[in-house]
Amino acid sequence: MPHEQIATWSRAAGKPGSLAPLRGSKYKIVDAHLHVVNFIQETPGGDALMHYMDQANIPQAVIFGLPVTKLWTEYDREPPDYYLANDSPCYYYAYTDSIVAEMVRQLAPAQQARLYPLICGFNPVDRYALRHIERMYEQYPNVWSGIGEILLRHDDLTAFTYGENPRANHRALFPIYQFAADHDLPVLVHQNITSVTKSDHPVFLHELEEALREFPNTRFVFAHCGMSRRVNVPFYHQMVERLLEAYPNLGVDYSWIIYDIAICPNGKPDPAWIELTEKYSDRICLGSDLVTKFERLGPELQRYDVFLDQLSEAARANVCWHTAEKIYGGNKGKVKRVQAQPAPVWEMLQAA
Fold this sequence. Notes:
By secondary structure, the chain is of the alpha/beta class. The protein is 34% helix and 14% strand. A 9-stranded parallel beta sheet has the order 12-11-10-9-8-7-4-3-13.
């Protein structure tokens, strides 16, 4: 069952006929993929986030805004609140990062320490995009833990968004990848591995691999393992395993529909994904991929339990929290300033 349809209530233990809210996974999980604003740039706020994290057994979370916002057109009577709500377009919205940073700064220091915020509010096909990241990094020097989620190939959302189609190997992103390497920041990317019309082979995978080859010192995280609605190819776990084997600085997150479609279809863990997870648990983390709706954190993460139960204790600890803390926690609360030395690719861009 797709996780959007999971009920937020279950039978209370020892109380036949009564209902109780799901409290989250029985395992401590760092939510490694959480949007704290929605597609019209609203947020329930930091206090609400902390409340529902506590209820759902989530000690830390990797949080970010949304780099695009939905347009409410003159001809639409009802205001849209999701990118699929109607046929109106989306456009890039840089202020999303300030919303996230200010939300974090309003929390008490102990609560701030539980969050790993990422910078995402830039147009990934704009060669000036690096300037936004530099400004955010300087304006909020003790906030950021990485860059992302960068929305690249994203089926319907790509089609709805103004401008050129973004992709992982777009030259506007190359100086951003270099900035991330220089500052030891992870980069979370959403890059579908294929289009909705091509289900027999991964037509967009080469774009991601070009970025991985060109920037071997940049720590990338492949969101949802490249899967999206109506996006799938045969032998998916072999493809993910090959990527992890070939690119040692690549990690993945199990979030959104990859879990329900490939990893644990119909609530039954796939043995091939269990084996893959055991082998690369130190490079795999879990996420809810909620767009606000913090009250759903419990059921979103509880659904992983049937899969986590089948892992070894060491692999389970990695997937639940060690990996996320290793990827995103190392830069929390500190700014690394480096001597400006343009990378060859940046020199190439300047000369282009």
